[in-house]
């Protein structure tokens, strides 16, 4: 029996990177997965790949900053798969770097919207929907919010991303306490990846915006690797495995926790 048998999950940003790996991991363990993303071709391809492997998945186009769309995605999970137990708030963007004194309010607000407001909405509609399908002593629900090492430690030229991901960390704890006190049997935890080899990091390296330094992509990649004591960047499956554990009932005594998966980045 799979570790996610009987569970229905929504994974945002499921078209690529950490979201795609997470959707596949949850489905491999028996979850029925709603893959959501702005990238329709990529999201549909992941849902198809899951189905080809014998799993159950559907794709829905979803802008995570749109509140009405959240309602529709939650309803889609219920109508298609008969309930909802897990929401993985993964979709996010890596903003242009730059010092605070030069950052525009519009670019700050865009990052806060996609990387933090979206997680608030995912928690709001996740809790409202999941609580209908959980019971004390019975099947549990789980919300997993993807923060970052940059939700734990500061980085120059990343003020908006730092603020958003730090906000995700404490929003998670607030939601965890509300669910526990209400007796909803929904756990809420955050995951804090180090640098992971995904399209987001490849794009950022190509744009030269990582760590706010202006060096070429190869040199920047080597500098990033050196920040991880294990001597490499992470891969998406390594984050998906942590999310899978938190989503499953194996993590039944974990709520409000921050799971750091960073190759030792924040250990020094
Ligand atoms: P990725 O490779 O860029 O994938 C993110 C996906 O989210 C993309 O398919 C993207 O679609 C989608 N997305 C962006 N904005 C969206 C929106 N408004 N509504 C719906 N979907 C949207 O990113 P990743 O590296 O897998 O990162 C996933 C999460 O992990 C993010 O929250 C990121 O901040 C966090 N994280 C990543 C790292 C890392 O090193 N990779 C480290 C720490 C934390 P489009 O491509 O069409 O925009």
Explain this structure to me?
The mean pLDDT is 96. The protein has a single domain (8-196, 235-267), classed as NAD(P)-binding Rossmann-like Domain (Rossmann fold, 3-Layer(aba) Sandwich). It is α/β, with parallel strands linked by helices and 268 residues long. The protein is built from eight helices and seven strands. Helix content is 45%, strand content 15%. Strands 3-2-1-4-5-6-7 form a seven-stranded parallel β-sheet, with helices on both faces. The radius of gyration is 18 Å and the shape is globular. Strand 4 (86-89), helix 4 (105-130) and strand 5 (141-146) form a beta-alpha-beta unit. It starts with 7 loop residues before the first strand and ends in a 7-residue tail after the last strand. The chain has helices spanning 17-28, 40-52, 67-81, 105-130, 159-182, 199-207, 217-226, 236-247, and strands spanning 8-12, 32-37, 56-61, 86-89, 141-146, 186-193, 258-261. The structure holds NADP nicotinamide-adenine-dinucleotide phosphate. NADP nicotinamide-adenine-dinucleotide phosphate (NAP) is lined by residues 12-13, 15-19, 37-39, 42, 62-65, 90-93, 114, 146, 148, 193, 195-196, 198-201.
C-alpha Rg (nearest Å): 18 Å
What is the CATH C level class, in words? Alpha Beta
Which CATH architecture would you pick?
3-Layer(aba) Sandwich
Mean pLDDT: 96
Number of domains: 1
Main sheet properties: 7 strands, parallel
Tell me the distance between the termini.
Answer: 40 Å
Structure classification = alpha/beta
The unique ligands bound to this protein are: NADP nicotinamide-adenine-dinucleotide phosphate
Portion in beta strands: 5-15%
CATH topology: Rossmann fold
Shape from CA axes? globular
**With helices defined by DSSP (H or I, 4 residues minimum), what is the helix count?**
8
Helix percent reads 40-55%
Compute the number of strand runs. 7
Low confidence ranges: none
CATH superfamily: NAD(P)-binding Rossmann-like Domain
Strand order of the largest sheet: 3-2-1-4-5-6-7
Helix-strand pattern: EHEHEHEHEHEHHHE
């Amino acid at each position: 029996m799979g570790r996610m048998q009987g569970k229905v999950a929504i994974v945002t940003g499921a078209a690529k990177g950490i979201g795609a790996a997470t959707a596949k991991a949850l489905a491999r363990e028996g979850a029925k997965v709603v893959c959501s993303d702005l990238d329709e071709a990529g999201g549909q391809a992941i849902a198809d790949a899951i189905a080809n492997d014998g799993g159950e998945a559907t794709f829905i186009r979803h802008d995570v900053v749109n509140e009405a769309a959240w309602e529709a995605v939650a309803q889609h999970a219920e109508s298609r798969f008969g309930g909802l137990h897990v929401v993985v708030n993964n979709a996010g963007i890596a903003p242009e770097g730059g010092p605070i004194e030069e950052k525009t309010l519009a670019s700050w607000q865009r990052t806060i919207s996609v990387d933090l407001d979206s997680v608030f909405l995912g928690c709001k509609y996740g809790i409202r929907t999941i609580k209908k399908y959980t019971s004390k002593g019975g099947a549990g629900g789980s919300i997993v919010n993807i923060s970052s090492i940059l939700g734990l430690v500061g980085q120059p030229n990343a003020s908006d991303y730092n603020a958003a991901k730090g906000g995700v960390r404490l929003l998670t704890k607030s939601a965890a306490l509300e669910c526990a006190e209400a007796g909803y049997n929904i756990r809420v935890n955050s995951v804090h990846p180090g640098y992971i080899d995904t399209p987001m990091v490849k794009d950022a390296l190509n744009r030269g915006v990582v760590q706010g330094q202006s060096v070429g992509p190869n040199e920047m990649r080597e500098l990033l690797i050196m920040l991880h004591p294990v001597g490499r960047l992470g891969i998406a499956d390594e984050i998906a495995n942590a999310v899978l554990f938190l989503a499953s009932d194996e993590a039944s005594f974990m709520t409000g926790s921050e799971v750091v998966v960073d190759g030792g980045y924040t250990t020094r």
